[in-house]
Specification:
It is built from 14 helices and 17 strands. It has 387 residues and is α+β, with helices and mostly antiparallel strands. The longest helix has 18 residues. The protein starts with a strand and ends with a helix. About 4% of the residues have low confidence.
Amino acid sequence: MIHRTKILTPEETRLIEGDAFRAVLADISENGSGQAKDAAKACVSCPCSPEDCLFFDIETTGLSADTSFIFLIGAICFNDNTWILHQFLIQTVQEESLLLSSFFELTGHCQILVHFNGNTFDLPFIRKRAAANGRTAPFEGLFSLDLYQHVRPLKQILSLPHMNQSYLEKYIGWEREDHLNGKEVVSLFWSYSSAKDPETEQLLLCHNHDDLLGMIRIPALEGYFALLKGPIQSNTLRVCESDDLSCLLFRFSTILPIPHPFEFFRNDSFRLQADKNSGRISVPIYSGTLRYYFPDYKNYYYLPVEKQVIHKSVGSYVAKEFRTSASPENCFAARTGRFLPQPEILFTPAFRKEYRSKELFFEYTESFCEQKENAANYVRRLLSSLL
């Protein structure tokens, strides 16, 4: 078995040593549950220590652990104030047990296993292969942090066709030296296991090396969570008026930078633009007539001539031929004015264009801009609706 090590540079590890990765753990702590939440909280409150984490990735000869085996494991861990990349590459299937033993020794010094889609693939595969070699994977009590599951809610705003690691690496702006796909890597291993060619060995190690270095750059995406989930800082709010459009313009800053500028539209509800640590959101102000639908429509009569509803407590004085029982569709009060969209009922009364319209609105008044906390909460909810 080949065991290669590399000391990583500060530039290669800056994202997992800095605020971005700490924010990942804080987010898991905030939104996790049970043992996962406790483990993440313990890590963050220490505060987060680099030596608590082990980043890893495996290379296998196939997708099924019943018919395939692991031929390469790469891992990044912290030791003696240094981030070290370990790679264990076997030359024959008989060495798989030794490979697993070497990896398990590293896990004995960590509390958190960090991976990309490992909850679905890597960890179950390792457990099965360990059992096939008469061993038990020592993962009990370790917290599993799956970066794929963590960043998957960002798919809508990133507008990526897939959320696999290669797409995320390109989005972040990291260029790999390796360009092999999974099928080519497996083919190379079978060639290497026969010829033990140094050049092929280097290609295999380079692929795994780039998988790991790409993975530890994914915390850069945490800037989008900071953008969408707050807290919002140093904000300004103003109304922009023109002949054909009026909008509410909200400028703000966030605690983490985003990898590169982006723009996102949510139908006609709002437009979001962000760059580095700043963002702006513009919300069109709707002018016209909207409807508030009474939820207790059974307590109302509908008057067809007047095209309005009245409560039954007073409707009983209207002749029966001029009234009918109200229905959900016609039991509303119309109001003309200026309105802002809302992703859910944040402010009441909530207005709609029609009964089955999914868009919700609330009436906009000049005092809304003066109530800065209400306005900031409104913007926070617009942003969080993108997750």
